[in-house]
Amino acid sequence: MQPEVGDIIKFKKGKIKYEGIVIPSPKKDSIIIKLSNGYNIGFKKDSIEIISVEKKEKPKIFSEVKFEKNKGLPEISLISTGGTIASRVDYEAGGVRWLMKPEEIFFMTPELSNVVTFKNISSPFQIASESMTFECYKILAKEVANELNSGSKGVIITHGTDTLHYTSAALSFMLQNLSKPVCLVGAQRSPDRGSFDGSMNLICASYIAGQSDIGEAVIVMHGEMSDTYCNVLRGTKVRKMHSTRRDTFRPINSSSLAKIYMNGKFEKLSDYKMRNDDNEVYPDIELEEKTAIIKAYPNFNPDILDYYIDKGYKGLVIEAFALGHVPTNTINDKFSWIDPVKRARDEGIIIVFATQCLFGRVNPFVYSNGRIMEEMGVIYAEDMLPEVAYLKLSWILGHTNDYFEIKRNMLSNMANEINYRIKGGKDGL
Question: Catalytic pick from 153, 180, 237, 240?
Answer without folding.
Answer: 240
